[in-house]
Structure formats: structure tokens, C-alpha cells
Inverse folding.
């Protein structure tokens, strides 16, 4: 069994899509829009087959996101090397994205950093 995709509701669909295209080498399908419901989405694809659906809809409840909360916390992207983790973390930080942790080797041996990237949602960068 595999996870087919993960979905994320966002307020600014185009900005979220641009983030993943610019920084994480995603490819995107064409915008899907349902004029009856106001729902819009993009499916983003990544090397290795992972997919992320970015969704937007006018009547979705907007909640404040605590960095430490119950539920899904982050999506992790494997960049292939510690050097690439360092490089992308520095690039994101220079572009104004808050770095929550790292780059560092965790107690369980992962080399990673964590960035607050999309509307308060965390992105983990790892080897």
C-alpha cells in the first residue's frame, strides 16, 4: 500500500504552488476549478512519485496554527545530501522564511531542518 497524495487547504493557492515549484522542484497540473462550489486545486508531483494536492475554497474555516499541536505537523522532503539541506535552508531563510530548527543531526540520526513555509505550515528538509 502507498499513500496516493496528501492535501493541504491554503488561502493563497497560487503563492503556495509557486513555493513548491520554486524551492522543491515540483511539477504541477493545470488549475482545476469548480465554479459551483468555488473549489480550486492543483496536484503537484515530486521525484519519486509523491504528490501534494493544494486546495482552496472560500468557505473553509481558517484556524491559527500552533507549531506544536495535535495532528499532521509537517511534510518532509528528502533532498539527497546534507549539503543540499544546508543550501536550501539558507536560501529559504534569506528569502524570509522562518527556520524552526536546524540544519542539524537529530538524536535519532536524521540530518534535517524545519521551515515555516506555507501559511504557518512546516516543511522539513532532510537528506
Amino acid at each position: 500500500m502507498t499513500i496516493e497524495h496528501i492535501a493541504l487547504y491554503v488561502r493563497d493557492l497560487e503563492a503556495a504552488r509557486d513555493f513548491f515549484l520554486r524551492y522543491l522542484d515540483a511539477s504541477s497540473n493545470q488549475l482545476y476549478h469548480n465554479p459551483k462550489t468555488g473549489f480550486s486545486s492543483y496536484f503537484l508531483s515530486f521525484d519519486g512519485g509523491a504528490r501534494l494536492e493544494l486546495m482552496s475554497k472560500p468557505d473553509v474555516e481558517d484556524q491559527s496554527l500552533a507549531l506544536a499541536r495535535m495532528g499532521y505537523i509537517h511534510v518532509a522532503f528528502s533532498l539527497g545530501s546534507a549539503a543540499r539541506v544546508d543550501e536550501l535552508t539558507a536560501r529559504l531563510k534569506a528569502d524570509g522564511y522562518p527556520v524552526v530548527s536546524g540544519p542539524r543531526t537529530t538524536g535519532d540520526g536524521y540530518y534535517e531542518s524545519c521551515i515555516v513555509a506555507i501559511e504557518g505550515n512546516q516543511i522539513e528538509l532532510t537528506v
